[in-house]
Amino acid sequence: MSAVLEVRDITVRFGGVTAVEGVSLKVESGALVGFIGPNGAGKTTLMRAITGTVTPQNGQVHLSGREITAWPVHRRIRAGLALAQQIVQPLKAMTLAENVALAAGARKTRNPLKALLQTNRMPELARARELLALVGIGDAAEARPGTLPLGYLKRLEVARALALRPKLLLLDEPLAGLNQSEAQALADLIRKLADAGQTILLIEHNLREVLRICPTIYVQDNGRPLAFGAAQEVMADPKVRQAYLGGQA
Amino acid sequence: MAYEITLLTTMAISVLFALSLNFITGFCGQISLGHAAFLGTGAYTGAMLAKAGVPFLLTLPAAAAMAATLGVLVGLASLRVRHDFLAITTMGVGFLFLGLVRQQDFLGGELGIAGIPATGLGKIGFMALCIALAAAFVAFSLYVRRTWMGYVFESIADNEDVSRVLGIDVARYKLAAFIIGTAVAGVSGALYAHHFRFIGPDSFGFVESISVLAMVIVGGIGSVWGVAAAAAVLSVLPLWFQVIDDYKLLLYSALLFGMMRFAPDGVAGLLRNLLRRRKAVTP
Q: Of B76, B109, B94, B90, which Cα lies nearest the Cα of B37?
């Protein structure tokens, strides 16, 4: 197996506050890694350093062996990253299918001049409908996001990310805000994607679902790596228990 | 007859100019409060070249190139600012343009440039050319909306952070919109100069920038037909009614305010709603 994502010794500071310090992390091809940590552990900051919205003071990010630390967001996406964001951001004027088709047409949107010469959206819309059906919201393909519940929009984020055919799928708290049955269904889907070979890094607060679906877990606390390994072993680690439960574990 | 020709020519030039702003503001979502600077750049380029003896038809691409060059510079400077900051930046560009032109003797300073030579096409020929160019840009705008470029513009206008996360090079697309929009504004400027055969800095000031924005907003931001219709009507009203000409700034500003407050999607949006309601009533 080879590493799809390799984060080396990343440090991010905001003014005087160190959000992430000396974090290294490897996600192997085909892996489903659950990324957990208490509030304020620096999970989102590390995610942003990977996607490129935050510039680390130190360290490197490698995607499939290429260093991408200094690349802008869109270039990282084109190199094989995809992100489903915690706060859903649908394109409001478009239908769900159009939202996904835009991502599916990445080849056509690479260059503005080429994009000016292409009008056919049919293959991308067909692919979009497939993906929406895959994530379980095929019934809403022609609806606009404004009227839909959060459960649909969370799945739209996943479908849109998948449309990019990413080497690494980053999921930022996809289960947050969903009820128990919705969360379970989406977690099952994530597991299904992983079983089909998709490499996934899943940031999530819902410990129960993470432990249920992720074979490997990475724990971060106070901006530092705390543990990495097989889920059961990591959760048995006294350091991890202490970080989660506080006081003496 | 000569009066009608003048009206139609003015109309066509306004439609072309308004659609050029619609390309940047309506399609790509980048607000501009200084679009008259590009009309002015085209007008001065066209006028200077014509006076230097360059054939009229050659002044058009030159005006486009000059305005687009300025457009790229403004576009590059604008990449880092958004929304209200972009509005202020572009407004600054408009004033900068005026300030520069006013100080240059070779551009005629405050007095402007008079005696711009005739086009050689005759009044009717020139009118036909203006209408043809406006119609061509209507067709091009409608085409772009169907392309993947239009698709991307829509996403940038909606939420450029999302566009980035979908792998879109937002900066390149914004620059493309600026280049096309300002080049066409430059062509409108050269036509303007040859139509009135006199230009001065006052023709390209803040009032002109607001007027063209009013046309885009009244027509319906992004709606090609709406903007074209609004530009056609609003451009000739001051010619028909002296009182409108006298109170142009007041009237256009009131229109702008009223539309933003009560019908942000413009006349096109109002019509769409009306049609939808009709359909709902008679299924």
A: B94
Q: Which of B23, B24, B148, B173 to mutate to test the interface with A (most CBs of A within 10 A)?
A: B148
A 10 A CB-CB count for B66 gives 23
Instruction: Residue A102: list chain B partners with CB under 8 A.
Output: 151-152, 155, 166
Q: What is the pLDDT of residues B126-183, one digit of tens each?
A: 999 999 999 999 999 999 999 999 999 999 999 999 999 999 999 999 999 999 999 9
For residue A72, the distance in angstroms to the closest alpha carbon of chain B comes to 9
- The number of angstroms, rounded, from the C-alpha of B98 to the middle of its chain's C-alpha atoms is 17
Report yes or no: A94 at the B interface, CB cutoff 8 Å: yes
List phi, psi (to 5°) of A82.
-145, 145
Residue in chain B lying closest to A87 (CA): B162
CA distances from A70 to A28, A74, B75 (A): 22, 12, 23
- Which among A51, A102, A113 has CB closest to B166? A102
Pick B162's closest partner by Cβ from A51, A89, A112.
Answer: A89
A66-67 vs A58-63, strand pairing mode: antiparallel
Give 3-state DSSP helix, strand, coil % of chain B, rounded to 5: 80, 0, 15
How is chain B split into domains, by residue range? 2-281
Q: Is A71 on the interface with B (CB under 8 A)?
A: no
The model carries a pTM of 0.90
How do residues A44-89 score in pLDDT, each as one tens digit? Answer: 899 999 999 888 999 999 999 899 998 999 999 999 999 998 888 9
- Please give the CATH number for the structural domain made up of B2-281: 1.10.3470
CB contact under 8 A, A106 and B148: no
Query: Domains of chain A by range and CATH?
Result: 1-79+166-175+193-249 (3.40.50.300), 81-161 (no CATH)
B142 touches chain A (CB under 8 A): no
Q: Which of residues 1-60 of A touch B (CB under 8 A)?
A: 51
- The dihedral over CA atoms of B136, B139, B140, B143, expressed in degrees to the nearest 10, equals -160
ipTM score assigned to the predicted complex? 0.89
In chain B, how long is the greatest CA-to-CA distance? 66
Smallest Cα distance from A12 to chain B, Å: 21
Q: Give the DSSP per-residue string, A218-231.
A: EEEETTEEEEEEEH
Best CA proximity match to B178, nearest among B153, B215, B197: B153
Please say whether the beta carbons of B133 and B13 come within 8 A: no
State which H helix or E strand residue A32 sits in: strand A32-36
- Does the distance separating the beta carbons of A77 and B176 come in below 8 Å? no
